[in-house]
Amino acid sequence: MGEITFGRVLRTYGTLIAGAAALLLAACATTPVIHTRMALGANLAGAHTFAFVRHPGTDHGPYKSLTTQRLERDVAQQMQARGYTLVAADAQPDLLVNFRVTTRDRVEGDIGPAFMGGYWGGWGPYGWGGWGGWGGWGGWPYGWGGYYNDVRTITTAALTISVINRTDRAVIWSGTASSDVSHHMRYHPGKSIDVAVNQIFAHYPVPMSAPMAAR
After folding, report:
1. What digits encode the pLDDT tens for the residues 108-121?
2. Strands (E), 12-151
């Protein structure tokens, strides 16, 4: 293969690689998956006041975490936009709100023989577009060597917001947002919390009665 043709191949597959990277970033920006549950006979519309529990599941010490502070701000806006009034926890509110964040790791990927040699060594068993299985182009002395390891750990995070009946301490409604943790979520946790809370309350059984304040 001539240098010009070979250069075109490299440029073409460089473009494909860039396109694949863009698709990967787009996939990381997907909205969370939402699941909600509601107790039988619950009447959230009949409640008027709410407060946050003293020790939410997002705190693990004698202080209020940054996650809890962001959640309280976001949830207060959502609840107040639905006609509820925020009061102190010792003021006997109708509802209490709790938060919980859990994470789970899973392993994904493949292990297989690696194609070695020239410009294509170490790109995997089939390279890009299934070329690796050729063992070289036109009799080139390239072959297989060793194994590649494309195994990676992916973390899934889940945020649960629970609305509790204060009188009997029973959960009336809960919403959970779960999503694979992306680089954007790691470096912009506040914005990720905003998105999760908005998505959860989009399924809240009581609609907004007033527009939320701008953030």
Report:
1. 766 666 554 444 33
2. 33-38, 49-52, 85-86, 95-108, 111-116, 143-149
